[in-house]
Amino acid sequence: MVGHADKVANPGDYFTVELLGLPIIVARDRKGDVHAISNVCLHRAAPVAVGEGNTKFGFSCLYHGWSYNHDGSGRSCSGMEDAADFDPKALQLPKYEVRVWEKWVFVAPGGGAPDFDEWIETTAFRAARYNMGELEFHGARRYVLDLNWKLINDANHEAYHVPFVHPGLVNAYSVAKNYGVVDPDELRGNDDADRGANMSPDVNGYTHMANEISGELLAMEPNPRGPFSKVIAALGGTSDYRKIKPALDCLQDRDKLAHYFLFNWPGLSHFHFMPDGLGLILLVPIDHEHTEVYVEWWMPKVSRFDERLLQAALIVFGNQILDEDGAMTQLVWTGLQSGAYDTGRFAPTMEGLLYAYNVWYIEQLQAGLEREEA
């Protein structure tokens, strides 16, 4: 995910972004097609656009004025009229795979990306229930952790740590019955059309592999949660809490109390579908010991002050959970660097999705090494 779709809603709209060190322009041309192109001029490697905005005819390099259309094709190069065998219109900035889905723009800068529809399929299955068009952007947070990306990614893939790292979530949802088997084939074997909807009502969580590149973790709300949990707990339980902070009107049955965490590999991001809306977490490796974390919140528009206050409290609570994860994984990073640790075991009933991810990740590393040796 590189940006919001509303940034390129109209012909001529564009925004710039850097993805893993690669400068990129995302632009919508006058025909309405969206493109992702390199933001590095073919003349002297200067940027051809900055920031975001709208441009009728395309982009001009800030250094020497070479100009390009919205799709990255060359338009004109002032000063190059006398150059032999040179046609500005034959130029083409590198192009990358790009898709607009719901509220976001996704770009795959390298070759070999999975089919986008397959990649997003599990997330799209959940999104269809949440009336995405009614959710509005409620803010974002960006911060840097001094650790390798995989540590925070591992924490995101399991709920085993919740009772120990997140005391505020002890009353949020039960993880005691959150199951996951360590055989990836068995994880992928849950062919339930509703991905767990027909499970026994006393199952408060599960992990599931929808396909080879998409995983899902479910946690149910059995108790009040959030900064007001102690106050709401005095009223009774979750049902009373949800009278004050009801779930989205569009949700039915168990979705009114469900938290679905959707993972799409190889992207280092996951969607958190919750009774109140949607959260998005994106990990951006800076180098092997620094990781940028980007978080977004999407909820419906509300008018009453108490409704806005509850939404704000939810975001504050979410940031508290993120800070707790960051602090713990920072300690883990220190332990890994000490040389006192080698490898650890996976908990069969709690870390099935994490195991499946690690199996997939090792397979990708091995395939990459084989390609380099070939």
From TrEMBL:
Cofactor requirements of the protein: Fe cation
Domain Rieske: 1-107
Gene3D superfamilies for the chain: Naphthalene 1,2-dioxygenase Alpha Subunit, Chain A, domain 1 (3.90.380.10), Rieske [2Fe-2S] iron-sulphur domain (2.102.10.10)
EC code: 1.14.13.-
InterPro entries: Rieske_2Fe-2S, Rieske_2Fe-2S_sf, Ring_hydroxy_dOase_asu_C_dom, Rng_hydr_dOase-A
Catalytic class of the enzyme: oxidoreductase
Entry GO MF terms: dioxygenase activity
Record's protein name: Aromatic ring-hydroxylating dioxygenase subunit alpha
Species in which this protein is naturally found: Rhodococcus jostii
